[in-house]
């Protein structure tokens, strides 16, 4: 029987990474409660603990929830995440990712909750000046998505000084893969991430993949990214929670593998897993996309004793391929 380690609130727990987080917390003996407005998440992805349907900007709802239940910490995954969309519609990103997050933090401070784990991003760095990004690399985000996240990181620093709110800002690179138990995976609508789009193109369940730019200053001209398994990301967040609960200091940490793959390398690997070609076209670069983003994960490994277990590219693609096939089969079955 698993020991009850207390309640934790997962804001955005019905989404891709948040739902994996809820599963991870439950497996470790925590009692997760999900708050999600279901604008991008899915109610059936919350397979563990209570789901409260509502918005993190609803102060009356937050007051009722935080007064009724004692939470040891809060995780925050409820952000808009599309770089190109943030360039087209910055107002939405500053409203959701900054203003509503500030309102959430204000509620936590007022209710005496002093531990916060924040889903940040490598986009805070902007254009890298080194092959591997360390946490002390200057932060000069080049798109509203990255700027909105960087603004919250700075806000958290100020809130700790003023109000004692301890935090872990986890800057992850490209989340990928699916739950190896086949319960959870990527279901964005629209889907903008490379791996599920390429898998669906290979399966014939989605359109041909558009490669956004083949003129970057990389070996094959396509963007290079660091892919980390979503289950490994969840494990890192749980370790960050333990770090804060054990009296650890606030931190900003990269979550990645230290190895980058280009878009064309990913497509080659997917064709091997799928056993079929990935239909593709070449389009222009997306606004706000740097050529290369690869983590130096040394600090997270040292501070949290975090070692990715499923982030080998072959494992990521096999898990994602199996998930996409299950989704296709479920949609193909007569209702």
TrEMBL record:
Its EC number is 5.1.3.2. Residues 8-256 form the NAD-dependent epimerase/dehydratase domain. GO terms for biological process: galactose catabolic process via UDP-galactose, Leloir pathway. It catalyses: UDP-alpha-D-glucose = UDP-alpha-D-galactose. The keyword Protein biosynthesis does not apply. One of its GO terms (molecular function) is UDP-glucose 4-epimerase activity. InterPro entries: Epimerase_deHydtase, NAD(P)-bd_dom_sf, UDP_G4E. Its cofactor is NAD(+). Keywords: Carbohydrate metabolism, Isomerase, NAD. Pfam families: Epimerase. Homodimer. NCBIfam families: galE (TIGR01179). PANTHER family: UDP-ARABINOSE 4-EPIMERASE 1, UDP-GLUCOSE 4-EPIMERASE. Belongs to the NAD(P)-dependent epimerase/dehydratase family. This is UDP-glucose 4-epimerase. It comes from Candidatus Macondimonas diazotrophica. The gene is galE.
């Amino acid at each position: 029987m698993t020991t009850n380690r207390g309640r934790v609130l997962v804001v955005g727990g019905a989404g891709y990474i948040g739902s994996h987080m809820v599963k991870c917390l439950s497996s470790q003996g925590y009692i997760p409660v999900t708050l999600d407005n279901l604008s991008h998440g899915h109610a059936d992805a919350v397979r563990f603990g209570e789901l409260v349907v509502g918005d993190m900007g609803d102060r009356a709802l937050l007051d009722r929830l935080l007064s009724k239940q004692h939470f040891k910490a809060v995780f925050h995954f409820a952000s808009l995440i599309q770089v190109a969309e943030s360039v087209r519609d910055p107002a939405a990103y500053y409203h959701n990712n900054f203003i509503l997050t500030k309102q959430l933090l204000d509620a936590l401070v007022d209710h005496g909750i002093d531990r916060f784990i924040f889903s940040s991003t490598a986009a805070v760095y902007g254009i890298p000046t080194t092959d591997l990004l360390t946490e002390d690399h200057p932060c000069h985000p080049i798109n509203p998505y990255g700027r909105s996240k960087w603004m919250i990181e700075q806000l958290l620093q100020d809130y700790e000084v003023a109000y004692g709110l301890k935090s872990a800002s986890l800057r992850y690179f490209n989340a990928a893969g699916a739950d190896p138990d086949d319960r959870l995976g990527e279901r964005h609508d629209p889907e903008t991430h490379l791996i599920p789009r390429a898998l669906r193109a290979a399966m014939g369940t989605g359109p041909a993949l558009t490669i956004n730019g083949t003129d970057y200053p990389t070996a094959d001209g396509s963007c290079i990214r660091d892919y980390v398994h979503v289950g490994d990301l969840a494990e890192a967040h749980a370790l960050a929670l333990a770090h804060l609960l054990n009296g650890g200091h606030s931190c900003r940490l990269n979550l990645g593998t230290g190895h980058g793959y280009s878009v064309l390398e990913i497509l080659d690997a997917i064709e091997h897993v799928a056993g079929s070609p990935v239909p593709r076209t070449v389009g222009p670069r997306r606004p706000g996309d740097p050529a290369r983003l690869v983590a130096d994960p040394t600090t997270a490994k040292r501070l949290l004793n975090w070692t990715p277990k499923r982030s080998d590219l072959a494992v990521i693609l096999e898990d994602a391929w199996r998930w996409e096939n299950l989704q296709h089969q479920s949609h193909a079955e007569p209702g």
